[in-house]
Each structure stands twice: as structure tokens, then as C-alpha cells.
Amino acid sequence: MPNGFLSEPVQYIKGVGPKRAELLKKIGISTIADALFYLPFRYEDRSSLKKINQLQPDEMTTVRGEVARCELVRRRKGFSILEVTVSDNSGHITAKFFNQPFLKKIFKIGKSLYISGTVKTNRYLGVGFEMENPEYEAIEDESDRHVHTLRIVPVYRSTSGLGQKTLRGLLHSIVESCAGKLKEYMPDDIIVKHSFPGLEDAVRNVHFPEDDNIDLNKYNSGTSRFHKRLSFDELFLYQIGVIKIKSDIVEKKGISFVSPPSLTSELRALLDFELTGAQERVVAEIFSDMESENQMNRLIQGDVGSGKTVVAVMAMLKALENGYKAVMMVPTELLAQQHYQNITKLLKGIQIKCALLTSGEKINEDEPDIIIGTHALIQKGFSLDKLGLAIVDEQHRFGVRQRAQLRKKGTDPDVLVMTATPIPRTLAMTLYGDLDHSVIDELPPGRKPIDTMVFMESEKNKVYDILRREIGKGGQAYIVYPVIEEDEELNLRSAELGYEAFKELFRDRAIDLVHGRIRPEDRNEIMNRFKSGDIDILVGTTVIEVGVDVPNANVMVIVHAERFGLSQLHQLRGRVGRGERGSFCVLLVYGEPGEEAVRRIRAMERTSDGFKIAEEDLNIRGPGDFFGTDQSGYPQLRIANLIRDRELLELSRSEAVVILEKDPMLDRYPDLRQRANKMWENRTELYNTV
User: What is the pTM of this model?
Assistant: First the structure.
């Protein structure tokens, strides 16, 4: 099999073995492919060679000399310094190695070697030069190819027990022995058209640049021609998968829902509000999909409070009035119950059977029309006759495979997925490229803006005053902490201690505590009491981020706001501002927040637009965290960066479209097909080559 060696365990590479293989696994390296495409995160120029008498303090450089002295100095129990004096014909420098006594047997008197590091003035004598824990490389043969010194040196993210020098040495060995076996799979016309280097050339040069006169800035920013080749490859393989999945879906015949409107008209007549223009546009897009003969696969993006639920109900009724059933899958029992209650309320007056299915619930009704449930909907044993529409809410909590499992509960039902997490267009095109997109970009009229305020720890009394004022007017408040209990290492205020403190501060108010360790049934009971107004202040963790809709709750206090992600801050803010009261989001900041934390907090002050928040979140955090691929079920991008490589993303998609239009099964490119299948392995089957 071409490139089959890439799947071989790295353990059997010379110099690795079982112990190092376990350490490598911690940083995501299990196979040869993992190692070859585990790129450095920065590079250091150690190509310059200086005489010792030419050295200057604070410069990074490399010197060559002989070991003139090697002495182990024990300062105190458990701590030692190995002092190695290296001399050339111009002077000498001391290399100090902390708590590495085993190195003494390496530095034999008279041994020739290179050392690289930052030059410092001897801290005790005030004269003479030294380096602390420098990289070193013995000169065994003048023809040796240097790995750690006298070149542009890669620096990798490592883990405890796996030193930088050891990791670099292992990767050098793997690159040298395996890169030459890589088989080019990219179509020749794409390589020529974009002047890409070959695959082997790119892999060798991103690890160990063969030219000392490179642009180090391009290497450190990941924009060298070799980095671009590998970033393009990753995005191209990703787009091959996304486009193939979508084309397979588009080709599937679905259900044509063409009966005259009856239930949808009834709902419109019962609503005490009019749909917004954005809601009407999205409903029209959904209905157009449902009326076609092809299977619908559409993503609905809408900020918190934009009215996605009523749009989903319209789609459900469209299926029902055509003689089919509908299901909605959500990630938590709490959210399932909320949707069940809200949808039942919306459908009051219409003869519809609606049921709830969670791990703790059973369906009592015979063949309900609509089922709202959790993962229980995709468990073995559940099926629904004439399932016409499957809806997935909070899509980022589910994967590609789970969507497919839900689809299989019927015979090619239409699929609608919804998310309250706004996604920038560039990211949406990548993450959900297999879906058509609709955006509800308008909030219902009458929703009052939320006043977002920032207070430092020293201003806590102002926060208490806001709470007393608003609760005194009949409002309710959330107090959110980052952790459940105290942790000395983290030095964070906790929900449990916060709960006790607020009970003392507000003795005349009903206060309760909710977090993830409380049993689901007890948590639901607390949330329901909060919704009914029996609790004035609800202290908790982010478990309330997706919780019961409480229109009367109008104050959200986020403790240690500097420790929350921007998207999470925005989602928490969306818990308030749902009723008639003026609402407030209070960001309580502790200590000296870092630059990124300040940017997040300023963004919250500046805008409540979820899509602007999402763009800023992407710029601050980068795509890795935002992408959420572990949860979404999509392949993880290890090389490409969706901010840095936006042009490559567009380019990779356009090239993938062209090649798949000409050769949908990639029959002319079996190696490319294999690589795409490998990227999407265990997620979905792109090409059945059996």
C-alpha cells in the first residue's frame, strides 16, 4: 500500500523504544506520520560560529572548543551544578548544567564540541562568560551533519521527561530515515501551478532547514514556501472530505414535502408576535429545501435570543402536515426539558403529540408526532416510523457520525442543525462545509440591550449594590464562578465558597447553588425553582450556560471574568436580557489580567453582536480552541492556521472543487484518495474502495 509505512508505530524507530514512545504519545506522536508532520513551533539561528573572545553578553551564539575542565559542584542536598570549561585558542567559557550530574561522563577532558546558548557574564565573578544549560554537540567526525548547533535549529513543543535535545534528535532520526519514503500524492498540475516544493522536500525543510540563509521570520510565522505546501495539503485534504460528504448528501433523494400549509398556518395564527425578517428568510430557505426532492442538510446560525426555536417548530410542522414525524436532539437533559416545555407551549391549541426522551425518561405516548431528546435518540432500539425531519441543536456538541446516526433512524429524513455559537464565515466554510448555511442575524423587536460593566476586585461593593438594587425591584441574578471548589494552585474563587459568602451578604434572600457534580435530577429541580422565582440568586459554574430560559433573571455576574473565553462570556451574558427588565452583565476581574484577557473584556464592553464577538474570539484564541474539532467530529488541523492561512483555505477549496468535478471518485489519484480517507478515518467513509 502506498505510504502504508506512515501508519507504523513510532516505537520501532531506532532510538525510540516503549518508554519514549509513551512520552511521544503525550504530545500526539504515535505513528511515523505523526512524527513527520509534528512541526516545530519556532526556530533559532545557531549557524553563526564565534571565537570566545568575540562574544557579547545576551547574544545567542555557537562556539567551538575543547573541554578543559569538568567539575560537579554540589550546592546543597538534591541540587547540583556541573561546570564545564570550554576553551578555544582565544579564551574560555563556562557551560553550567543544573541537576544533570550524569553529563559528567560525556564531557571528557580534551573532547571537541560545539555549544549553543545565550551568553551571560559570570554572575559571581562579574567577569568572564558562561552559558546556562546550553545545547551541545560532540564533534566525532568533521563530516558529521549537525543537529543541535551550527545551523538553523527547530524547537518543538515537548513534555516532561522528554527534553528538547532528545526530542529533536529523535525527530531528526525519523526525518532522515523516513522522509525519503514519502510518495507524492498531490496532482502534478497543482504543484506546478502554485510552485509548491515536493512533499519530501517540504517535510525535510520544515524540520531541519537545509539552507542557513533562510528568512527566519517566515519560518517562525509558518509562512515559508515549505510550510505553505504542508498547510495547503492539510486544508486540501480537509476540503476533499467536506465537499465529498456534501456531494454524496446532495445526490441522495429525500422527501418532497409539498402538501398545502395547514399546521404551519395554524401556528402563525396562534403566535402573539410576528416573525422577524431574518426568521422569515430562513424559514423560506428551509421550506425550499424541504419541498425539493433532495435531502436537506442545513445549518442555522443564530445568536442567543434570535428565535431559532420557532423556526425549528415551523420546519417540524412542515413535516407533520405532510404525514411525517420530527425529532430534535440536544446535548443535555436540562436543555431537552426546556425545549420540550417551550415547544409544547408554542403548540398549545394545535393537535400535536409531543414527547420527551432522555436517559431517564421513556415515551409513554403511542407514536408521538414530535420527540425532543438527548443522545438517547441515537441509541440502539430507538426508531420512529415515518421520520421526516431530524433537528440537532447546539451542533458543536455533536459530531459528524452522530448526525449520521440520527439520520439513520429514518429513511433519508431532512436534517436541520442549529447553533447559538456564531461562527465567522471563514471558519463556517471549513467546519461546516458539508452543510448549506442560513443565518438569523436579527433579534426580535423589544429586546432590551444588556448593559455590560467591568469591575476590579477592589470594587466588589459596587457589584453588591447592583445586586441589591435589582433584586429589590423583583429581579433575579446569576453568579458564575470558574471552578466548583477551592484550589490553592489555581488561586481562583470557587462556587462553593462564593455560595457561602453570598448567603452571609444576602441573608434575607433565597440563594442556591448549582454545578456539574450535583445530580442531574437535583440540578433540574434547582433550575426550575429559579425559573419559578423561588430563588433570588443562583450561584454556580458554567453549567448554567445552556440552561432554563428565565425571563425574569436580569443580572449576570461573572467572577474571574479574566479566566473565561470570549465565546463563553458572550453565551453567559445571553442568559439575561430575555424579559422586560433592564439587564446587566457584570464582569468581575481579579489580579492583573494578561493582554489576551484584556482584549476579551474590552470586546465584551464594545459589542453584543455575536458574530463580531466570534471574529474577535478567533483573532485572540486562534483556530485551535475555537475549532473544537474534538467535539465536532471533524479532523483536527495540526499544521494549517485558519487566520494565517485564509488565502490558502480559499485556494484549497477551489482546487478541491475542480478536481472532484473532473474525477469524483479520484480514480486517477489513488494515493490522494488514500490520504483523504486516512484524514477522515473513523469519522465518515469518503470512498468505499472495497
Answer: 0.68
